[in-house]
Amino acid sequence: MELGVAYSDPLADGPLIQRASKRALDQGMNIVKAIELGGEMKKNGVNIPIILFTYYNPVLQLNKEYFFALLRENHIDGLLVPDLPLEESNSLQEECKSHEVTYISLVAPTSESRLKTIIEQAEGFVYCVSSLGVTGIRNEFNSSVYPFIRTVKNLSTVPVAVGFGISNREQVIKMNEISDGVVVGSALVRKIEELKDRLISAETRNQALQEFEDYAMAFGGLYSLK
């Protein structure tokens, strides 16, 4: 499960997640509270790995030892930093290893030599970006993405999950045929945005939560990795 940290300048995210980040920040959310929320989820029965998705600046603003102590105390399993390029990620990857946190690598269409370097360092799974640009809902993908994903799959010794733009069950099924899992983000955030007033109201919250669960499960369930 990917747990995104709200950030004021989310360069990799499209309008949907930008609006969600602003709503969260306006309510006082920050990286510490997000990590603690992950811990609460674990306490309340979430028994699948939780990957913290955060930009690098919020991490830098915390003392590194404090940051990793928070991850450990709240049983956060992995870390994904979308704005940290390969050349600058080695130090953080080593720190993750020493604190037993899985560092998740992102790969986008690039040269094969660079692709091999990223994949060789990958742990947990490789997050394969299905389209260039920011996150967001897409009705279709460039045809070049399919051979790219197959190349990543052939090179990788860890599972390959595909994300960015997956917005319906048909896309999930198609991507799952050539990968090990599919990441759905913006579509779920859009549904939460549609339901937000009903989620806020105590009278309609349970019904809205059930509607959201039904919507999320229609993508194929919570356990998308084969």
From TrEMBL:
Pathway, per record: Amino-acid biosynthesis; L-tryptophan biosynthesis; L-tryptophan from chorismate: step 5/5
Keyword NAD: no
Class of this enzyme: lyase
EC number: 4.2.1.20
Gene3D superfamilies, alphabetized: Aldolase class I (3.20.20.70)
Transmembrane segments: none
Keywords of this entry: Amino-acid biosynthesis, Aromatic amino acid biosynthesis, Lyase, Tryptophan biosynthesis
Gene Ontology molecular-function annotations: tryptophan synthase activity
Keyword rRNA processing among record annotations: no
Catalytic activity: (1S,2R)-1-C-(indol-3-yl)glycerol 3-phosphate + L-serine = D-glyceraldehyde 3-phosphate + L-tryptophan + H2O
Active site positions: 2, 13
Top-level taxon in the UniProt lineage: Bacteria
InterPro entries noted in UniProt: Aldolase_TIM (IPR013785), RibuloseP-bd_barrel (IPR011060), Trp_synthase_alpha_AS (IPR018204), Trp_synthase_suA (IPR002028)
Subunit relationships: Tetramer of two alpha and two beta chains.
Chain's role: The alpha subunit is responsible for the aldol cleavage of indoleglycerol phosphate to indole and glyceraldehyde 3-phosphate.
Family per record: Belongs to the TrpA family.
The name this protein goes by in its record: Tryptophan synthase alpha chain
